[in-house]
Amino acid sequence: VLTGNGKGKSSSAFGMVARALGHGMRVGVCQFIKGRSDTGEEAFFRRHSDVDWRVLGEGFTWETQNLERDTCVAREGWETARAMLADPSYGLVVLDELTYPLKYGYLDTATVLEDIAARPSLQHVVVTGRGAPQSLIDAADTVTEMRDVKHAFAAGVRAQPGIDL
Ligand code: ATP
Ligand code: MG
Fold this sequence. Notes:
Layout (H helix, E strand, L loop, with lengths): L1 E3 L4 H14 L4 E5 L8 H7 L4 E5 L11 H19 L6 E5 L2 H5 L5 H9 L6 E4 L6 H6 L4 E3 L19
Parallel strand pairs: 1-6, 2-3, 2-4, 4-5
The chain binds adenosine-5'-triphosphate and magnesium ion.
């Protein structure tokens, strides 16, 4: 689990994707975010035949103007993640920004934890996102909290390709 308010959660997870590929592993990535198709990591890893890259947040409003729809999109997305978690051909599964649908209640944390616990015994799972629920932290073997010391964004620097996306 990579959590906290500082920068480095998703990029750390994608660093592990590169490591896993270097060891010949097959990797699944599920991004629980509002669709963003311009990230460098997605463009790079989609070229790799051993990476199965899914963006599952398409349709989230994040403003809970339509709780029913957001819940539906999140649950559909979780079915995709769950299929990866049931497939021993994936050596690593990254659940990027999963903490948000948990925090907003779109997904039931206990169900998600059960599905993760039922994965093949040699499969690694990495979860990223701010505000990881305590039960997820308790269930994880390794947890890192990124602390925000400072970020250029606060000084008015917009997100930089290659660094922030
Ligand atoms: P990264 O993808 O760079 O590893 P992250 O996954 O830790 O960042 P998120 O909370 O997912 O961070 O935020 C996504 C975007 O916000 C990225 O463009 C990231 O660089 C940027 N960001 C991360 N932390 C901060 C921060 N403390 N202040 C401003 N922007 C941030
Ligand atoms: Mg992130």
